[in-house]
Specification:
Layout lengths: L5 E7 L6 H9 L6 E6 L4 H9 L4 E3 L6 H11 L4 E6 L3 E2 L3 H9 L5 E12 L2 E2 L4 H9 L12 H8 L10 E4 H4 L12 H10 L4 E14 L4 H7 L2 H13 L2 H11 L9
Parallel strand pairs: 1-2, 1-4, 2-3, 6-9
Antiparallel strand pairs: 4-8, 5-9, 6-7, 6-8
Helix pairs in contact: 6-8, 10-11
């Protein structure tokens, strides 16, 4: 079997209790993976984790920010394809193998997308409302005749973010460097996928839950819900697709999904 030229780049931040589990899930891939680690918050904990698992650690100078950290990780990969691995999450051992088996057939693919299952209170599953809705919204991208059409890529994003960012594998040789140009905080992923959907290229979906997405109190999404920034940015994103009056109606329903972060 032929495999894509791919690198996982872990974005390590401060002293996460989940970092080692993330590393172990990448090391357990059925296809021998290329792994790097980057950080803008260097400390002994991150350094020791990198040394323990023999992973190159690259430090970014400057203030920590999602846009700058993600671009640094993306540019550091050095391979044709890459995945930004979030330190809180776990990757199924077949993640790279399953993506390779599909993406190797699509030279025009710009991103590969997998399904996910949440981890909450330390337990994997069951699916929450976000996971269920995102899977429905992604459905047009599962079809070869639709997933290279700008209209359908845009429609798949128009009722909410349908792609979980750590599930995404980026085709760097097509997309070019530093693809994260949005100044949003919570919706940087949704805005980025919107920008990519407006470009030529195919969004390829592997409809299998190959990521386990951790929900916890320290997660950025939870913090941004608490200070209402997420609500502001979600509204701004809906207004990119719809008139303001429709966006206002959609927000009333979309905010119900915030409850997935309640304990």
């Amino acid at each position: 079997m032929e495999f894509i030229d791919h690198c996982f780049v872990i974005c390590a931040y401060k002293e996460s209790e989940y970092l080692e589990s993330c590393i172990e899930s990448l090391k357990a891939q059925t296809v021998s993976p290329d792994i790097k680690m980057v950080t803008s918050t260097p400390n002994d904990f991150i350094k020791n984790m990198a040394e323990k698992y023999h992973i190159p650690l690259i430090i970014r100078e400057g203030k920590s920010s999602l846009k700058d950290d993600w671009n640094f990780a993306y540019n550091t990969a050095g391979t044709e394809w890459m995945t930004i691995a979030h330190q809180d999450d776990l990757y199924d051992c077949h993640y790279l193998e399953e993506l390779s088996s599909v993406l190797i057939r699509y030279k025009d693919a710009t991103i590969g997308i997998t399904d996910y299952i949440p981890i909450k209170n330390g337990k994997i599953g069951p699916r929450d409302i976000n996971s269920k809705m995102q899977r429905i919204l992604r459905s047009p991208m599962k079809r070869k005749l639709l997933n290279n059409k700008r209209f359908w890529k845009i429609r798949s994003l128009s009722l909410g973010v349908s792609i979980k960012c750590p599930c995404v594998c980026y085709h760097r040789s097509i997309l070019g460097p530093s693809i994260f140009t949005s100044d949003m905080k919570q919706c940087i992923d949704w805005d980025t996928f919107y920008q990519l959907a407006n470009r030529e290229g195919r969004f390829v979906v592997v409809d299998k839950p190959l990521l386990y997405y951790r929900i916890h109190d320290e997660a950025t999404s939870k913090v941004l819900i608490t200070n209402h920034l997420r609500e502001k940015e979600d509204r701004e994103m809906f207004e990119k697709f719809w008139p303001k009056w429709i966006a206002k109606i959609l927000m009333k329903f979309y905010k119900k999904a915030y409850s997935t972060y309640d304990n």
